[in-house]
Structure formats: C-alpha cells, structure tokens
Design a protein that fits this description.
- The structure is a single chain.
- By secondary structure, the protein is mostly helical.
- It has one domain (3-50, 77-136, 199-319).
- The protein has 13 helices and no strands.
C-alpha cells in the first residue's frame, strides 16, 4: 500500500467534495452539541453553581438541608429511574445512529468516487443508511467482549464489597483481614481496568476496518469480520504504519485546534459569566459560538479526512487480492 498516495488522494477528495465536511461534523456531533450548550448553561442555572467557593462554603456549612424524600414512593422512584434510563438510552442511540450513518456516508462517497460514479450528499446519506444494519451488528459483535470484561470487573467489585460488608458485621472478624480482602478485591478490579483502554482501542480499530470490508466488498457481518481478520494478518505492517500516521496527524491537529482556541475562550470567560443578561455576555456568547462552530468545522474536515483515508487504504489492500 502506498501510504503517501493514500494521504494525497484523501486530501484531494475531501477538498473536492466539500459536503464531506458536514458529514465529518456529524461524526463529531456529540462533542459539538456539548460545546454549544455549555456556554449557555449560565443563562439557565444559578450563577453561584459555577463557582467553586460556593460549593466549598456549602460543604462546610452546618445549615445544609437534606432533600425531602418523604413523598417518594417505590413506584415513583421506579418511574424516575426508568425515565432516566430511557432518556439516556435514547440519547446514546440517536447519537450512535447519526455518527454511524455519517461514517457510512463518507465510506460510500469515497467508494463511489473511486469508481468514478456520480456523487451527491443525498446519495452518500442513502448509502450510509443502507450500511446501518450491518454496522450495528458489527458493533454489537466487536464490543461484546469489552462488555463482558467490564461486567466481570463489576461482579468482582460487588462480590468484594458484599464480602467486606458481611465481614464487618461479624464481630469476630479482624480488621486486618477485612482490610486485606478489600484491598485485594479492588486491586484485582484495578488490574483488570488497565486492560480496558487497549481493548477499547483495538476494538475501535478493528470495527473501523470491518465497516469498510462490509461496505466496499458488500460482505455480510460474519464474512466481513472473518475477512477483516484475514486482511489484517496479511497486511499488519501496512496497517500499523497507517495507524501511526493517520491517528498521529489527527491527534496533533486536534491538539493544535484546542490550543488555538484557548486565548479567545480565556478572554471571554469573565464576561461569559454574566450569561445573556448583559451586552458583554451576549458578545462573549457570540464569540464562543463562532469559535465552537469553527473548531467543529475544522474537526469535521479532520474526521472526514481520516474516514476517507482508511477507506482508500483498505480498498487498495483488498483490491490487490488480500
């Protein structure tokens, strides 16, 4: 695989098809929404909530009134809990669909452009939606081991906590034994948690390639996952070099974007504290909005470039008979 050629083609395609910028912004929709909402929270929440001194004084005060839960029954608590879970589930699903369709649209647009076919934003979106079922199944299969690993960690933590609680209630249990069991259990949890980051990174990397295998080669879920493993084994060196280059560029560029936005965010921090109740607050909010959208656009271009590069690279390897 000619990685230099892959990068050159990716830059040319992202510049030529500027609707890919919007699709890239959709891939980062979660952080965009959070960054858009954050500056305006001060207009709807008490200003003292954003001051550390307020919470420190509150924690040291003797006049803290505990919340009244007398009217909260088991039924209403269950409804609140169910409602919270449903809202969280809806939030996660909606954002996952948006991000996955956007990535699928970029993959489809890149593949169609490589085959010299007519390409539009709507065509790309239709391709993204057409991949959604297979991408959902790939995600479920790829991240299931990670779910089991985290479940295993949770079970160990619960067993350790229950054991420590039971031993504490037993008057004959020595404190040194209780402490030892507690420390040993949570050391196991900590040791297992050290594997979460590498497992997550490997899972994300593998699903990135499996998505392209399913889309470019029109494979089913099982065939795509099997063939992706085969392609990785045969071209591991190429993938490793490309991973370092692509994610290295993405990391450095993302860091630079964050660094460049700091001066303006720092200058507007004080007037922003007044919310939308003053001219300075309105101007600060406008400046933050502009910077947020500009950074989101630049990050969107970066997301689009990364998605296009992986697609072109994977197509090069698979078209060579891998």
């Amino acid at each position: 695989m000619d990685i230099g050629n892959v990068i050159t083609q990716s830059i040319e395609l992202v510049w030529k098809r500027k609707f890919l910028w919007l699709l890239g912004m959709l891939m980062g929709i979660n952080s965009l929404v959070f960054n858009l909402i954050r500056p305006f929270l001060r207009s709807f929440l008490p200003s003292q909530w954003f001051e550390m001194e307020y919470w420190l004084n509150l924690a040291q005060s003797d006049n803290i009134t505990p919340p009244d839960f007398s009217s909260l029954t088991s039924d209403t608590f269950g409804l609140y809990l169910l409602g919270s879970v449903l809202v969280l589930f809806f939030y996660v699903v909606v954002f996952w669909v948006i991000v996955t369709v956007a990535e699928g649209a970029i993959i489809g647009a890149t593949f169609e452009d490589q085959r010299l076919r007519p390409l539009t934003f709507s065509t790309s979106l239709r391709l993204g939606f057409s991949y959604l079922k297979r991408f959902a199944a790939i995600d479920a299969a790829v991240f299931f081991p990670l779910f089991l690993w985290m479940l295993f960690m949770t079970i160990i933590g619960l067993i350790d906590t229950i054991a420590v609680g039971y031993m504490t209630l037993q008057t004959e249990a020595e404190s040194s034994t209780v402490i030892s069991v507690f420390v040993l259990g949570w050391l196991c949890v900590f040791a297992l948690s050290c594997f979460i980051i590498p497992i997550t990174l490997i899972s994300i990397w593998y699903r990135t390639l499996a998505f392209r295998d399913a889309a470019i080669l029109d494979h089913g879920v099982r065939e795509a996952m099997r063939h992706t493993r085969q392609v990785i084994r045969q071209n591991f060196g190429d993938f490793l070099v490309m991973t370092v280059i692509i994610y290295g560029l993405s990391y450095v560029t993302g860091w630079l974007l964050s660094f460049l936005s700091l001066p303006i965010l720092a200058l507007t921090a004080v007037p922003l504290a007044t919310g939308l109740s003053s001219i300075s607050g309105i101007l600060a909010s406008g400046a933050n909005l502009f910077i947020t959208l500009l950074i989101a656009l630049l990050r969107g271009i970066l997301h689009a470039f990364t998605a296009v590069a992986w697609t072109i690279g994977y197509r090069q390897l698979t078209s060579n008979g891998s």
